Structure to design on (134 residues):
């Protein structure tokens, strides 16, 4: 079962997302700040991270950048930015920070699951390379 880290500070959002993602058969852990996400990534092996951008403390861009800096190179964890910022430059900023994909709020759950499944099928690839699906 893939293990997902959801980084989201809004209680309504994380309750809805966690319930729906768990219902799809994924194991989900929650971090509510960028700082907490760094600690959790250091303690557990996640298969995918769903990263809100607007967080207390440092934002999701900085959290993503720090996660990428700390990556040991052996294991690449895909990150999907989930944000209310919906302009093209926001998408570009998320990708430049190290996110692999971008999902604008409000969350369209079927599209988010499709994005997750695509990235989970590629999780064993080195950055910039695609792995075959298992």
């Amino acid at each position: 079962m893939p293990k997902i880290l959801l980084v989201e500070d809004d209680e309504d959002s994380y309750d809805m997302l966690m319930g729906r993602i768990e219902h799809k058969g994924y194991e989900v852990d929650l971090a509510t700040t960028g700082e907490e996400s760094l600690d959790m990534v250091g303690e557990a092996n996640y298969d995918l991270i769903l990263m809100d951008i607007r967080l207390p403390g440092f934002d999701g861009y900085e959290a993503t950048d720090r996660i990428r800096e700390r990556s040991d190179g052996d294991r690449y964890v895909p990150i999907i930015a989930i944000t209310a910022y919906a302009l093209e430059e926001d998408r570009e900023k998320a990708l430049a920070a190290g996110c692999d994909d971008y999902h604008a709020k409000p969350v369209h759950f079927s599209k988010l699951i499709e994005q997750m499944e695509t990235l989970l099928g590629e999780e064993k690839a080195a950055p910039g390379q695609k792995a075959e699906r298992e």
In short: The chain has five helices and five strands. Helices lie at 11-23, 34-43, 60-70, 88-97, 109-120. Residues 31 and 37 are 5 Å apart (CA to CA). Strands lie at 3-7, 27-31, 48-52, 79-83, 101-104.
